[in-house]
Structure formats: C-alpha cells, structure tokens
C-alpha cells in the first residue's frame, strides 16, 4: 500500500516538475522573443524609445491627438477641434536624405464595408462612360501612411485597398509617366495582415527611388518619386483613423 502511495506521489511530482519545466521553457522563449523585439537592429538608430517624444516634433496642438500608450505611438480618434493652419501629422525633429526605415504599424478601426475607388490593372481608376470614377464596396478598418522626406507625394500608403499597403503616394494616377514606371508605384502583391494585427514596413529611399518590403515580402521595387526634396523628416500621417506605430528605426545611407 505504501509502495502504491509512493508511486502515485512520484508520478504527481514528475507531472508537476514537467509542467513547471514546460512553463519555464515557454517563458524563456517569450523572453527571448521579447529581447529580440526590443533589440536595435544592427546599423540602425531608434527614432522612438517607447516612452517619450524624443526625436519627434510634438507641439502643444498635438496634445490629445497623438499620444504614447503601452509603448506605442497612437493616433486618437477623439481629437479636439482643429486650429486652422496647424499641421496635425507627426514628424521627426531631424531631416533625412537617403535611408532605410523600419517601422511597425497596425490599423485598429472596426472593420466595415465602405465604397472605394476601383483600380484597373494598369493603375488607373475605373470610370464610367461619362468619366466619373466608379466606386466599389470594400471592407476597410482604417487609413494612414508614412511621408518620406515629409512630403505627401512620397507617401507610403497604409490602407485597406485590395491592392495592399505600400503604394507610393498617388503616382499611379500620373498619366504622363510611362505605364511601366507608373506600375512600379503599385504593390506587386497584397501582404497586409488583418484588422488590429501588427505589420512591418522596411522602406529604402535612395535619391528619388523607393523600395518597400511589407511583412517580409518585397511589394515595391525601384519606384520613382518625382519632385521629391533632397531631405526632410519622417512623417506619420493623421488620417483621423485609429493607427498605432512602434519599433521605429532608421539607418542613414551614404553615397
């Protein structure tokens, strides 16, 4: 009888020890992943420390608009009334020329069906016989973007269009550009994750040429941005939709 009790106790101890060991192993894995997530990529400089507005031009009129919460930069959707003439986008204090930017983002609005412009295969809007743009219902959960060198013409779009995020400004509408050049500004594939999920851009700007990787997939290669200034800030767009940014790093490139 004592042997049986001892055997059962041993099995219980073994199960407890194994379960504890498994929990420790899982905790170590998550800790290792967290450490990797917190690490600065080699050769990069952090633009956001997760706590303060160091490196960002956060003027008083942006209070209640852009906030830092839970280690992320968050755009509020209940911002106070705007003051005419003020810029409500969020920009870095420094200006940059050529660089590689790594930035994580996610759109947090509730998914709903809204009418969107419908793009043809050559990057133009579908229009009817009268030339009016045809709208098509599409599931969306927000819109934002990253302005390279601080200009909208060099915007890397964050949105829910069927073509996917990463589209460069609105250069697909440049009918003066050759189709081959125009189509380089359109994502080669839709690599976005779903509502509320984190995505990662790796954006390289060199001269007037842009490459964009989204979630490990090259979606833009060698797109040309005409009339872009030689230098400017990194700017996060305020589209009045719920968006968050984290892990923002930059590596300046030398000629």
Give the H and E element order. HEEEEEEEEEEHEEEEE
Distance between the termini: 82 Å
Determine the CATH superfamily of the largest domain. Answer: Exo-inulinase, domain 1
**At CATH's second level, what is the architecture of the largest domain?**
Sandwich
Largest sheet: number of strands, sense, barrel closure: 8 strands, antiparallel
CATH hierarchy, class of the largest domain = Mainly Beta
Strand percentage lies at 25-35%
Q: Provide the gyration radius in Å.
A: 23 Å
The figure for the number of domains is 2
Q: Taking all residues together, what is the mean pLDDT?
A: 86
CATH topology of the largest domain: Jelly Rolls
Question: Class by helix and strand content?
Answer: alpha+beta
Poorly predicted tracts of residues:
3-7, 14-36
- Helix proportion range: 10-25%
The outline comes out as globular
DSSP, total strands: 15
How many H/I helical runs?
2
How would you describe the overall organization of this protein?
The protein has 255 residues and is α+β, with helices and mostly antiparallel strands. It has 2 domains: 1-39; 43-252, Sandwich (Jelly Rolls), CATH 2.60.120.560. The chain is built from 2 helices and 15 strands. It has helices spanning 2-38, 179-183; strands spanning 45-46, 56-57, 66-69, 72-75, 90-92, 99-107, 112-117, 135-140, 144-147, 155-158, 199-206, 209-214, 217-224, 235-236, 243-252. The strands form 3 sheets. Strands 1, 3, 4, 6, 11, 12, 13 and 15 form an 8-stranded antiparallel beta sheet that branches. A 5-stranded antiparallel beta sheet has the order 2-5-14-9-10, with no helix packed on it. A two-stranded antiparallel sheet has the order 7-8. The longest helix has 37 residues, at 2-38.
